[in-house]
Amino acid sequence: MFSINKILRENIKKLVPYSSARDEFKGEASVFLDANENAFGSPLEQQYNRYPDPLQYKVKKRLSDIKGVPPRNIFLGNGSDEAIDVLFRSFCNPGVDNVILVPPTYGMYEVSANINDIKINKVPLTEEYQLNLEGIAEAINDHTKMIFICSPNNPTGNSINRDDIETLLANFSGLVVIDEAYINFSRQKTFIQELTEYANLVVLQTLSKAWGLAGLRVGMAFASEEIIEVMNKVKPPYNINEASQELALKALQNVDQVNGWIKEILLQRDRLVLTLKDFDFVLDIYPSDANFILVKTTDPKGIYNFLVDKGIIVRDRSKVDLCEGCLRITVGTPAENDILLQTLQNYK
Ligand code: PMP
Questions:
Q1: Is residue 82 in contact with ligand 1, taking CB distance under 6 Å?
Q2: Which of 58, 139, 254, 342 would give a disulfide with 121, using CB separation of 3.0 to 4.6 Å?
């Protein structure tokens, strides 16, 4: 059975988080001389002389309306990369605890584990890029705090079977972190609606992909109130800057525009698959639920270098286990995809 007290680090249980005078003060005031800001203003049209809301209430309220999850179940990070790091710092004891990773998958889980000196137990995906549940069960020990599942998975593009994830959620006594960075491109349902069902569920999403805001650095974690409280304690106090909060709030009004792009990206994804599969050097294209495709080729290095020469950059994943020969190609605009496909006509 999952219990947050069993997995929380002792130092975090005792931690007194940073608090500002403005957190403590609940009334009305017009003169703020508490935070050593420059009260005269900023050398910009927009005023950024005041610290931002540490708990980003307005952005969370808007996200809450879109996602159907109360603000108290939402954590915001400086990208979901920060949420990943905060999870490690909240729940994993350096040099003692371990996490389970299921490669090939998003590289930051491993980097973040290494930065935090957390051991990694790798249980590779099957040939079908699905979970090896038996292998995971064997790899879990008393010090296993988290399992990271990326669905749709980067770099393979496929979604992970929902039943398998639910099996983990029901049986693992640590956190199951489901990274849904690419969920908007998927036919699969998000796990956000399962938060009331599973106390050990953490869902990661981001504004960097479908929302087109990678430059703002805003990522989300959805979890129980208890987990979110811990994450808020551990994060740097002002982790989302004022400009990002304002712009995210503004962008989050444009749901229709984003849905339009998603439709177009899915059409362009189909078009790339249909055209690429006829090239001689393409051996396989894996079914994608994301805004990229994994393409197995006869000569990944050669194609990669040929494209770089023409100013086109794709991601060479051919050295990654289970992705031998593969390039990962992001779906671009119709014009960018034209350039890619026309250029590849001239390869060999
Ligand atoms: N998760 C996955 C699966 C990703 O591919 C990425 C970015 N490539 C991230 C998280 C990080 O997203 P963010 O920009 O929100 O830090």
A1: no
A2: 139
